[in-house]
Every structure is written in C-alpha cells, then in structure tokens.
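Cont'd.
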Amino acid sequence: MDNTDKKILQIIQHDFPLVNRPYKAIGEKLDLSEEEVLDRIIKLKNEKIIRRIGGLFSSKKLGYTSLLCAAKVKEEDTDKVAGILNSYPGITHNYKRDNEYNIWFTLISDSEETRDKTISEIESKIGYFVNKLPATKLFKLRAVFKIPEGDE
Amino acid sequence: MLTDIQKEIVKVLQEDLPNTKEPFVEIGNKIGISEEALLNEINYLIDKGYLRRMGAVLAHRKIGLNYNPMIVIETKEEYINDLGEKIAAFTEVTHCYNRPRMDDFPYDLYAMIHCNSQEEVSEIVKKITNDDRIISYKLLYSTKEYKKTSMKYFI
C-alpha cells in the first residue's frame, strides 16, 4: 500500500461518488486515470484491505434492533461459547476481551420479540447468563478511520 | 416504509459493488431500473437516514490500526451528554454510546478507539479522561476476534 492507495482509501471511505463513472471522478481528484483507480481498488480488495464497497445502513431505520451483550465465561469455555454465538447470523461482532466480562457480542434482530427469544435460546445453549446493554443514547457511529501516514 | 424496489436496493448495496467502470448501470440492470432511477433512490435513502453512507469498509488492522481498545467510563447522570459529545468529537473514536450500568460494572459511556501505537492510545485516553466529571474508567482490549461481519438485511 503506497501513498496513492492511501489517498484513494481516504476518499472512498468517506463518500463514494454517486455518479455514472465513479472511478473516473476519483481519478480526477487525484490526477490518475480511471483504469489506474479501478485497478488499485481491485488490488486493495484482493489484499482484503477493503472489505467491500457499498452501503452502510442504519439498522434502526430499517426496523431492526441492535444490542450489545456481555457475558462472564470461564476461560476454558470461551472458544466453545464463541462458536455457538458465531452460528447466529444476527450476531455480527463477537470478541474476547481482557476483563471479567470476557465475551462481548452484538446481536441485530428484526424485532424485540425475536431478540428476547434469541437471547433466551443462547443462554440455554451456552449455559451462561447474557447481560443486555442496549444503547440508551448514540453519540457517534462512524467507522471512518484516520489512515496512518508513511509508506508500508 | 420502504418500497419493494428500495428493499431490493438495500439487498444489493449490502454486497460489494461490481468492479466495473459503470457499477450503478450494472446494479440497475440487475434489479430492472435505470441508473438514474437507482441513483435517485440511493440519494433518497441517504436523505431519509436509511443509508448512513456509501463507501468503502476498511479492515482497520490492515491499514495499521492495531491498537483498538474499548473505553468504558463512569460518570454522573448529569454529565453523560456533555462527556458523550466530547468523546465523540475525536477522530480516533468511531463509536460512542451511553449504556445502562451493570451492578459490578458501573460504566455509563462506551467508546471504541482506533490507533496505530500504544503511545497514541495513551495520548487520546489522557485527553479523554483528564476531566473532573469522570469518576473512573477502564480500557478493554480484544484478545480474540471471533466474528466481524456486516448485517444482511431483508434476506
């Protein structure tokens, strides 16, 4: 990844141009040809630096409900519990963290009823209590990163 | 409520954009509308807040952001809003929420911080926590990523 790649990433992670020839529009900003921009983006996708280019939706506006959950799981059970959690498509993020509350995951559901049913089901499957931590207020949700400078 | 065609657009846009010069023409063809109609619908979805943005989702570790703690902060009820706004203003902070306390985990504010060094984390944490309104705080680092995906809606 060189500085040109970083400039492209900086542009497309903020706002992808909603025009007929988006790669041409990006190229015009950086003095690059359309072909070069597209080739570099394909390379960045192949290297999995770009996970995807597309829409970032508001789950709430689409009628879904999102929940952060935390559980205290015995160290020897963590991988097994995580495996069960990962089998749920609504669980989009799942991490082990260095705290007594060591399993943290997010669950997106299409209704509060589905959500509560899923949590009960998960609790009986994993054998641990799941703490629900709904967002009572959102101050920021914008996964746009400051790209570190310097060549790699 | 979204129309059927808008739901189709959501389904297509939660996947990766095609790697062609005219990606919106291709998507329009796929769902049977013109490029112009598609772009109008996308702009409508953005205006109404269904679509937060169109853009690239980056793997933050691959761009060098390897220090990504979650900070949790204990404060008083009356300071939650002001502190939340203050923390949200940092570019290194991508998520910031107020959440209910747990009995043995008395934190009110949760934020995700993304940095490229331990020093940078310390610097940001100092800027955030050097504040009389904060009673206590803790940094939680992830030791294992079990899953990280985007939600698939309307499937």
